[in-house]
What does this fold into?
Amino acid sequence: MSALAIIDGGGANLGSVRYALQRLGTEATVTADAAEIRRAQCIILPGVGAADVAMARLRRLRLDRLLTELRQPILGICLGMQLLYEHSEEGDTACLGLIPGKVTRLQPAAGLSIPHMGWNRVHVHRQDPLADDLPANAYAYFVHSYCAPVNRHTMASSLHGRSFACMARAGNYWAAQFHPERSADTGRRILDAFLRVGSCV
Amino acid sequence: MNAASQLCRRIIPCLDVRDGQVVKGVRFRDHRIVGDIVELALRYRDQGADELVFYDITASVEKRSVDVRWVDRIAREIDIPFCVAGGIRDVDTARQVLNAGADKVSINSPALERPALITELKDGFGQQCVVVGIDSVRVADDWWVRQYTGDPAAMQETGRRTLDWVAEASARGAGEIVLNCMDSDGDKGGYDLSQLRAAKALTDLPLIASGGAGAAAHFAEVFLDAGVDGALAASVFHSGEIAIPDLKRQLAGQNIEVRHATDNIR
It folds into this structure.
């Protein structure tokens, strides 16, 4: 059994998260097995693609309910972050409801490309083990068209047309809209902190 | 730069790959070996490249698929995003490349052969990992798309206007457009600003400029005058003529939002 499980929701691109953890010295298990996920010390929920498709997959794998029952640290990345909220405008999808708030689409405007793709600043709002190591000028790599609102669960925000939550936390559920595995030093610090929170190192 | 965003303009070295080595030619011809893929990838990552594109220049022409072994080698080593182009002509190949750790796949000739591929990839993996590459030449007063540009003998006209194809690719579900202006490629005389500006006006998608970078000023003008999201270049980076940290300092000096990579050196 691995201390760390990456949930295989059926999408591609799980490799880069696993390799990022390997660079930190942690071997993760990529799995959709409920028992294995339940046993893990900490869990990453990655995700690319559309919210409606991803939620349908989690339900089909019977992981939606399981995800709400876990007590160990869980980190949702990109679409995995959005799925932790109550609802997504993408496909008008009911999500896991673990972090209050609704995910909405970024609105195109003059000079504002959608998807929001590339490096943007991470403005940390409050102290948290996952954000405490970040420098003031931290940048992270984003690829998304939908985003979560800034509310009391927001740990950090970024600006693209409007301010949105780029990191959030509700209890044992953490979330990052950007891709830590592709965010160079910023991402390394966040993943390393998550592994320490979960005693996975 | 748009005041309502702090999104950084991206500097993207392009590594043309042939038989597992990085090569570079002028106007897509006369390729010579530049170096090992992973070694160069790490060097650019340490210099502060925002993203890398690996373009298998022969796969599209020879109808081979990308060799995913080098994709996997890169994915294990680097922690910035990278895109793989060349020889991705179906959903299965794209899945292999993405599963090997690439963040995006870029399709060019296969999208021209079968435009539905764009939508299939979007439906399979999400819009964010579907890049459409366009090789474009000026003919008379307009720009036209070329196909199979990896081999001068195989290169073909497509009968498609570049701007029409930009609009169609956007409508079919592309997540990003790379517009390679072949007339300026390798000349180091600057990006084709008028063509890029015309393309940017047609789409909300991120647009990446390619072809013609020769000096730091060319990057500044393509961001300020053409409004592109990223600028791709190869030879000026491979030769060391332009060092990425210097380039970013110059861009920042002109109030262009760029990522400062000083905290990213290992």
